[in-house]
Amino acid sequence: MSEKLQKVLARAGHGSRRQLEAMIEAGRISVDGKISTLGDRVEVIAGTKIRIDGHVVSVRESEEEVCRVLAYYKPEGELCTRSDPEGRPTVFDRLPKMRGGRWIAVGRLDVNTSGLMLFTTDGELANRLMHPSREVEREYAVRVFGQVDQDKIKQLTKGVQLEDGPAAFRSVKFQGGEGINQWYNVTLTEGRNREVRRLWEAVGVQVSRLIRVRYGDLPLPKGLPRGGYTELDLKAVNYLRELVELRGETETKLPVERDRRRAKANQIRRAVKRHTQSSGRRTTSTRTPSTRNSSTKRG
User: Fold this and answer.
1) pTM of this prediction?
2) How many domains, the chain?
3) Active site residue ranges
4) Which residues form the domain of 56?
5) Which residue, 8, 33, 122, 207, shows the most beta carbons closer than 10 Å to its own?
6) What angle do CA 11, 104, 189 make, to 5 degrees?
7) For each successive 10 residues of the chain (299 residues), what is the average pLDDT?
8) Do 80 and 123 belong to one domain?
9) 50 within some domain
């Protein structure tokens, strides 16, 4: 049976459907030597050659692939893009290399925002998790600069008007701090550009630090340093898949428990070392607020 070209490529891990649709419209994708157009359908059989930017890509059926998901602690200063013409660091720089596939980011974080990002090999999973209709809850730890009173909290949870439409936090919880520098944990179910910062700015409060600490029911892993990553186990992967109505996996690429702990420690050390070398500056220690009191309700 034939399927839309962008769906076939997304399932094989070559980007989200929206990204692939843009690539098709730009004439960057061909099937068996013919430049594709938006709306083309393809039946993947032996000998079918699909190229992106002239390079043949793998389009093996998802049933033959094992869905993998990484949790990554994005540092401030990294861009959510595969490459930057100015040579600035990106979130993809330190992820493990793969043959026959690539990591797809589940959403984005602003360059000045740190915290939990998810990456997967399954384009369909990424696409569904990012779709606004799924309303997957995200939680952020926010350090704000300015006076915050109950009227402002009420505005933030009831809704304020932004330039791209109304928006609101699901919850706003005070976490501590003194004077005009205070920490709050906020939750929302959208992923609009700079939405957390713009909501606070709409009530006259500036955000001085922003950290994503939870995605759905998955918290930022304890002990994971900035610039480090860890691969999620089968239970966590299937939680994400079931969240967006995808069939659960029965296999995982993770090694057995003892080897997994050793591999995890090694991969974190390597990632942090590469981050330190690429940044060209000494990493300074900053305090991160506790997330033990974070809500774990699903979006």
Assistant:
1) 0.68
2) 3
3) 110
4) 3-61
5) 122
6) 95
7) 84 82 94 92 84 85 70 94 87 84 89 95 88 90 91 93 91 86 92 90 93 96 93 94 88 61 67 68 48 42
8) yes
9) yes
